[in-house]
Amino acid sequence: MLTFREDSPATRHGVQRREFLQAGTLGLGGVTLAELLRSESRSETAGRPKSVIYVVLDGGPSHIDMYDLKPQAPLEYRGPFQPIATSLPGVQICEHMPLQAQIMDQLALLRGIRSVENDHYLSEVYTGLPRSAGKRPAFGSIISRKAGGQAGMPAYVSLNEIATDPFEYEKPFYMGAGHAPFRPFGESLNDMVPVKSVERLEDRRQLLTAFDGFRRGLDRQASPAGLDPFQAQALEIITSPKVRDAFDLSKEPAEVIERYGKGKYPHQTFKTIFYDWDAKAFVRARRLVEAGVRVVTLRVGSWDHHSGPNSDIFHALEHLLPVLDKSIHALVTDLRERGLDKDVLVVVLGEFGRTPKITPIGPGREHWADAGCAMLYGGGLRMGQVIGETDPRAERSSNGKISFQNIVATIYRVLGIEMETKIPDFNGRPQYVLEDREPIHELF
After folding, report:
1. pLDDT in tens, 154-164
2. Could you identify which of 75, 374, 378, 388 might form a hypothetical disulfide with 112, taking C-beta atoms 3.0 to 4.6 angstroms apart as the criterion?
3. What does residue 421 show for φ and ψ, rounded to 5 degrees?
4. Cα–chain center distance at 249
5. 214 contacts: CB under 8 Å, gap ≥ 6
6. For residues 305 and 363, is the Cβ–Cβ distance under 8 A?
7. How many domains does the chain have?
């Protein structure tokens, strides 16, 4: 909903104060924030708009050690972890995820996901399409433009710092810079405080006016007199504490944050280097969708477990899986207790799986594009099922295929995106949002 400039050397943590205030041009054709708000008002429908929390396990989580164990496979495939029964009859998952096992009848598992890329290019994860498809907008940017957000809130928030992502696949491209994700880092939240002076409000008004194309001065009063209702609503996005409050974890009870878990996990190739698990990202994501944000993306953990003398995938997973388990369980429980289970879709996945055959040195597992996995919850979809199946060694799907395009198409359908819509690219050529526009029908 807001206009943010692309990251530059001067803004390593995303949007700076005055850049955040650029709430003017939203995309192609000079659409303004106020105009978009008018359009949303005309098409407003009853009920709460649906949202998605998109959790990326960056690096490639090991499907065969998490959600697709093969206890009958040879030892060099199955690894040391034991499967445990879940609340979904006949379905087993890893022993290090007992909390998810308890609520598996409320979840949906996807097995045998096939990716095109076999390296850490996240274009499929964030667009559904591989790099060969060209520069395509992130799905959050498409949702921001085609479905919009609630008044006073950005439609698309990324909890991933640009500075930690050398490739940066969450770009809006031809959706327009106004549909880039808002990133709550560095200076970007500093100006999002209640206005306490006429001078400060005047400064923000002038910025809004400049980017909306108005060439007149604004009233120096503290109220938005002289603005039409939609210009006033655009101004409210800048001046209201609502967005900042959604990020403010001090408003969250300590016992709630504690439920999301805490712990440390090792670097994927150095067993002695540990990082703190960022459970608070899950809490922020829940607060944001509760406040009306349509798309929230986050990345957690370190999942690129290769072979090598200092690497041990099972040592790493013994630390990673319990904290991931706590965070997912707490998020799902929170959403259900708050009555958001039908309105918020949670998707947890990585860019691919890991080689089913273990590399002895380490031990490790390498990149594996032929079979990955994902966990879904909520969104009004049919839960309590496993979709897809792999062969006895978890190498490939044995009953059809699931692609990232199918996953993104499912998200689009939940959030009300018309799949046959075409959007002009940089050259004016109409592009479908996806090439394979079939959602995962079993979920509906």
Report:
1. 899 999 876 55
2. 388
3. -65, 140
4. 19
5. none
6. no
7. 1
With CA atoms as reference, report the closest residue to 160 among 130, 131, 182, 189: 182
Q: Which of 329, 164, 178, 184 is nearest to 243 (CA)?
A: 184
Residues 432, 426: Cα–Cα separation, whole Å: 14
* Contacts (Cβ under 8 Å, ≥6 apart) of 390: 63, 68, 111, 112, 371, 396, 397, 398
Domain, as residue range, for 310: 51-193+241-443
Length of the chain equals: 444
Residue 271 maps to a domain: yes
In angstroms, the CA 215 to CA 318 distance is 61
Q: How far apart are CA 84 and CA 94, in angstroms?
A: 6
Closest CA to 268 of 235, 294, 301, 237: 301
Q: Residue 80 domain-assigned?
A: yes
Q: Do 124 and 404 contact (CB within 8 A), yes or no?
A: yes
Interstrand relation of 156-158 and 295-299 (parallel, antiparallel or unpaired) = parallel
Token pair listed for 203: 């400064």
Establish if 361 belongs to a structural domain: yes
Contacts of 253 (CB under 8 A, 6+ apart): none
Q: Where are the beta strands (DSSP E) in 313-407?
A: 344-349, 353-354, 367-368, 372-378, 385-387, 402-403
Look at residue 168 in the predicted model and tell me its pLDDT: 76
The CATH number given to whatever domain includes residue 175 is 3.40.720
Tokens read off for 369 = 């594009």
Full DSSP string of 18-44: HHHT---B-SGGG-BHHHHHHHHHHT-
CA-closest candidate to residue 100, choices 144, 70, 67: 67
Please give the model's pTM, rounded to 2 decimal places.
0.82
Residue 214 counted as domain residue: no
Please choose, from the candidates 212, 245, 244, the residue with its C-alpha nearest in 3D space to the C-alpha of residue 230. Answer: 212
Categorize the per-residue pLDDT at 239 as very low, low, confident or very high, splitting at 50, 70 and 90: low
Tokens representing 96 are 């290090």
Alpha-carbon distance of 241 to 193, in angstroms, equals 5
Helix (H, G, I), strand (E, B) or coil at 37: helix
Residue linked to tokens 């880039």: 180
Distance CA 115, CA 128 (A): 9
Phi, psi of 107 (to 5 degrees): -115, 170
